[in-house]
C-alpha cells in the first residue's frame, strides 16, 4: 500500500472523530455563549467562532444601530452579541455606562480602545494603564495642556489650517463643476497639525512622508479582521505602529537634546520633556529613577495622543461642514460673531483670548461633538465579574461597549435636534446634562487634551466660515453615518468651495 492510500485510510478512520470533536466544540461554544448571555436581548444562535463579525465588518453602522435598538426595545439598556470568540455587551443607557467609566474597583474594567487593541498597540501604553501608575503619568502630561502651551499650539494650528484651506479652494476652483470630497483632505490637514503641534521641528520632510504612509496602514488595519499573518491588513497595521513609535521616540530624544541647550519649548513634546528633564535632575540627586521616561515609552504615549486626536478631530471637522450647511441660520450667527472678533484682512493670528470670546462658535463646536460624537464607542474589558444591574452580572473577560453616541441623545432638551443654544449661558445644558456628554469619556481615562480638541474645532470653524463660501453636494443618504473608524458623512463630505474674502491672511509666512 502506497503512502497516499495509507493517508486516505487514516483520514477516513479519524474523520468521524474529527466531526464529533467539531460538533462538541460548536455545542460547547453555543452553551457558553447562552450561559453568559442569560436573559439579555441578543442573537439566540451564533455562527461558530466568527459570531457576527462579518455583519460588523460589512456594515458597522447597521450593526451598532441594531445593538442600540435591541437594547432600547428590551428596556434593559444593554444587549449581548458575539464576535470572533469574544462575548460582548453593548451599553445604551448612560447611567450604566458611567458604572463602566467610573471603574469603582481597580480591576473591574480596563480601557482597551479597540477590541483587539493590545495586539495592535502593544501592551505598554497610556490606554491600558490604571491605578497610581496611570495617575502619575497623567500628572506628568498635564504641562502639555497649560494655557501657555495651548497658546503656542493655537498659532501652529492656524497656520496649518490656512495653508490647507487655500489648497482646498484651489482644488475646487480648478474643477468647479465637480464637488470636492473633504474626508481625506481633512485627514491630511489633521495629520500635519498633529505632527507639527506634537513634535514640531523633529520630523523632517522624509520622516513625514514615511509617517503618513505608516499611519495610513495603521488606519486601514483598524477596520480589518484581526488576522496576524503576512499579507493581512491587521499585521501591516501592527508593524506600522511599531515604526511610528520608533519615529516618535527619536523625536523625544531630539527634544531632550534641544532643551538641554536652553532652548524654549515650541511644541507639545518640548513642554513635556522640559518638565521631565527637571524631574530627572531631581531624582538623579537621590540616585532614583523616573518611570516612563525612556524615549521609546514616550514615543508610545505620543502615538496614543496622535491616535486620540487624529481621527476624532477629522470626524468633527467633517460634521461641522455638514451641519453648518444644513443650518444656514447657525452659519450666519457664527460668521457674525467671528467677524466682530477677528478679520482675515487684519493679517493677525487669532489669539487664545479671542478664541475664548467666541462663545457661540464654541457652543456650535460642542453641539457638533454631542450630535455626532466622533468616537461612538469606548470599549473596555471586564477584569472580573461585575454586577451591572441587580439582575445581570457581566462575566470576566467580556468586551463591554459603553455608547457615547447613545448617551448624547439622552437627557438633553429635544436631543435629536441640532441646537447650539443648548450650550449657552442661559440654558447651560452642558452643566445640567453633564453626565450625558461623554464625548471625552469620564472617570480616570477622561481625555486630557479636550481643551486642545475644542480649540482646534473652534479655530477651524472660525477660519473656514470666514475665508470660504461652501455648499454641500446633496444626494440621497449623503449625510448618513459611515464608520471609518470614527464616524463621517457617507459621501465623504462632498462640497463646492469658493473664496469668500478678497485676500487670504498672510500670517502663515511668519510661522
From TrEMBL:
SUPFAM superfamilies, per the entry: Cytochrome P450
GO molecular function, one term: iron ion binding
Cited InterPro entries: Cyt_P450, Cyt_P450_CS, Cyt_P450_E_grp-I, Cyt_P450_sf
A Gene Ontology BP annotation from the UniProt entry: isoquinoline alkaloid biosynthetic process
UniProt keywords, alphabetically: Heme, Iron, Membrane, Metal-binding, Monooxygenase, Oxidoreductase, Transmembrane, Transmembrane helix
Reactions that this protein is recorded to catalyse: 5-dehydroepisterol + NADPH + O2 + H(+) = ergosta-5,7,22,24(28)-tetraen-3beta-ol + NADP(+) + 2 H2O
Signal peptide span: none
Record-annotated membrane-spanning stretches: 6-28, 40-57
Binding residues for heme: 447
Names of the cofactor(s): heme
The EC number(s) this enzyme carries: 1.14.19.41
Protein family (similarity comment): Belongs to the cytochrome P450 family.
Name of the protein described by the UniProt record: sterol 22-desaturase
Organism field: Macleaya cordata (Five-seeded plume-poppy)
Lineage: Eukaryota, Viridiplantae, Streptophyta, Embryophyta, Tracheophyta
Amino acid at each position: 500500500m502506497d503512502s497516499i492510500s495509507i493517508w486516505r485510510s487514516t483520514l477516513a478512520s479519524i474523520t468521524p472523530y474529527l466531526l464529533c470533536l467539531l460538533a462538541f466544540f460548536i455545542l460547547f461554544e453555543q452553551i457558553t455563549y447562552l450561559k453568559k448571555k442569560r436573559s439579555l436581548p441578543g442573537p439566540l444562535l451564533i455562527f461558530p467562532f466568527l459570531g457576527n463579525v462579518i455583519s460588523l465588518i460589512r456594515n458597522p453602522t447597521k450593526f451598532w444601530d441594531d445593538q442600540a435598538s435591541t437594547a432600547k426595545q428590551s428596556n434593559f439598556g444593554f444587549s449581548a452579541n458575539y464576535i470572533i470568540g469574544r462575548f460582548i455587551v453593548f451599553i445604551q443607557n448612560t447611567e450604566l455606562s458611567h458604572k463602566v467609566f467610573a471603574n469603582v474597583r481597580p480591576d473591574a474594567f480596563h480601557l482597551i480602545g479597540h477590541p483587539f487593541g493590545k495586539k495592535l498597540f502593544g501592551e505598554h501604553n497610556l490606554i491600558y494603564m490604571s491605578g497610581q501608575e496611570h495617575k502619575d503619568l497623567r500628572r506628568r502630561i498635564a504641562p502639555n495642556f497649560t494655557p501657555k502651551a495651548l497658546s503656542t499650539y493655537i498659532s501652529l494650528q492656524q497656520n496649518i489650517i490656512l495653508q490647507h484651506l487655500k489648497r482646498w479652494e484651489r482644488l475646487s476652483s480648478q474643477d468647479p463643476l465637480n464637488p470636492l470630497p473633504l474626508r481625506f483632505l481633512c485627514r491630511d490637514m489633521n495629520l500635519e497639525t498633529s505632527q507639527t503641534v506634537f513634535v514640531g521641528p523633529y520630523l523632517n520632510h522624509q520622516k513625514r512622508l514615511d509617517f503618513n504612509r505608516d499611519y495610513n496602514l495603521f488606519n486601514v488595519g483598524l477596520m480589518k479582521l484581526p488576522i496576524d499573518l503576512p499579507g493581512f491588513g491587521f499585521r501591516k497595521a501592527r508593524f506600522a505602529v511599531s515604526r511610528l513609535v520608533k519615529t516618535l521616540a527619536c523625536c523625544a530624544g531630539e527634544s531632550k537634546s534641544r532643551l538641554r541647550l536652553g532652548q524654549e519649548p515650541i511644541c507639545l513634546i518640548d513642554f513635556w520633556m522640559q518638565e521631565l528633564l527637571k524631574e530627572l535632575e531631581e531624582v538623579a540627586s537621590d540616585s532614583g529613577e523616573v518611570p516612563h521616561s525612556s524615549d521609546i515609552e514616550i514615543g508610545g504615549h505620543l502615538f496614543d495622543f496622535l491616535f486620540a486626536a487624529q481621527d476624532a478631530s477629522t470626524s468633527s471637522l467633517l460634521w461641522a461642514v455638514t451641519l453648518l450647511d444644513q443650518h444656514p441660520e447657525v452659519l450666519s450667527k457664527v460668521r457674525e460673531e467671528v467677524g466682530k472678533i477677528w478679520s482675515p484682512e487684519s493679517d493677525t493670528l487669532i489669539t487664545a483670548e479671542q478664541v475664548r470670546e467666541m462663545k457661540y462658535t464654541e457652543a456650535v463646536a460642542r453641539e457638533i461633538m454631542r450630535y455626532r460624537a466622533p468616537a461612538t464607542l469606548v470599549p473596555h474589558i471586564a477584569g472580573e465579574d461585575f454586577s451591572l444591574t441587580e439582575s445581570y452580572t457581566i462575566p470576566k473577560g467580556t468586551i463591554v461597549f459603553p455608547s457615547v453616541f447613545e448617551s448624547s441623545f439622552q437627557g438633553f432638551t429635544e436631543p435629536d435636534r441640532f441646537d447650539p443654544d443648548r450650550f449657552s449661558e442661559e440654558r447651560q445644558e452642558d452643566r445640567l446634562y453633564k453626565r450625558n456628554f461623554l464625548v471625552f469619556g469620564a472617570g480616570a481615562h477622561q481625555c486630557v487634551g479636550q481643551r486642545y480638541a475644542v480649540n482646534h474645532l473652534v479655530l477651524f470653524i472660525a477660519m473656514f466660515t470666514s475665508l470660504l463660501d461652501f455648499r454641500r453636494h446633496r444626494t440621497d443618504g449623503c449625510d448618513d453615518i459611515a464608520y471609518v473608524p470614527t464616524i463621517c458623512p457617507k459621501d465623504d463630505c462632498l462640497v463646492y468651495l469658493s473664496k469668500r474674502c478678497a485676500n487670504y491672511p498672510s500670517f502663515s509666512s511668519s510661522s
